[in-house]
Design brief:
Elements (H helix, E strand, L loop, with lengths): L2 E5 L2 E5 L4 E7 L2 E5 L7 H10 L7 E5 L5 H4 L2 H8 L3 E3 L4 H4 L9 H7 L3 H12 L12 E2 L13 E4 L8 E5 L4 E5 L25 H7 L10 E4 L9 H14 L1
Parallel strand pairs: 4-5, 5-6, 6-7, 10-11
Antiparallel strand pairs: 1-2, 2-3, 3-4, 8-9, 9-10
Helix pairs in contact: 5-6
The structure holds zinc ion.
Zinc ion binds next to loops.
Length: 248
Amino acid sequence: MRYYQVADDVFCIRGTDVNMVLARDGEALTLIDAGWLKDAGVIEQSIRALGHRPEDIVAVLLSHAHLDHIGALRHLHERYGTPAYTATAEVGHARGEYHEQATPLDVIRRAWKPRTLAWAVRIAAAGGLRENSAPHIQPFPESGALDVPGGPVPISCAGHTSGHSAFHLPGAGLVATGDALVTAHPTSNIAGPQLLPDFFNHSTRDAIDGLAAFDSVEADLVVPGHGPVWKEGIRRAAEIARERAVGS
Ligand SMILES: [Zn+2]
């Protein structure tokens, strides 16, 4: 199975080296992030295995417009009419009006090791070398919980991209951090809470400052954009990521 349950009515779907979060309220679903282009099939299969239909997704929430998160947005919209939302500051990026993305070649040049090459081969197969955007995406409201399954509260934490958001699901005691904080990545040598390597970040300085957005959030569970679920609280995760980033 490419998905597992992380809390009541919340599931993590594993794409190609990237996580997505599915929140359920009765029939209706919210999908947070959408993997690579070719992870669309994994999303559809996971939703069907849970007894739902892809049409049950009432909203896709996008943490940021990198190719490993925006992947299936356009497919879901064209096939099922699924709406997608992101922060106002990320809309232009998601619509493809500009780019803030390291290419796989950049990554290999700067982080050469066999593991990195194996990852690049996997992401190329997942559609990672193709342009992708979501011209239909709309901004979500600037503050408060969104009226979709899981009641996610967007948390603005720019740095990895200029309009990056995480999503707090208060009922589940969970934060989906996107790439504001991850717990592993095929191009990283360490495990546990951390920022992505510099070449993935629009501004690592801002990404470190952006971790402060988690200091007032109450949640035991962290589902990052990459790496395993962290169960020791979002504040502790942010603290470790900050210490490592500042110390490196
Ligand atoms: Zn990213």
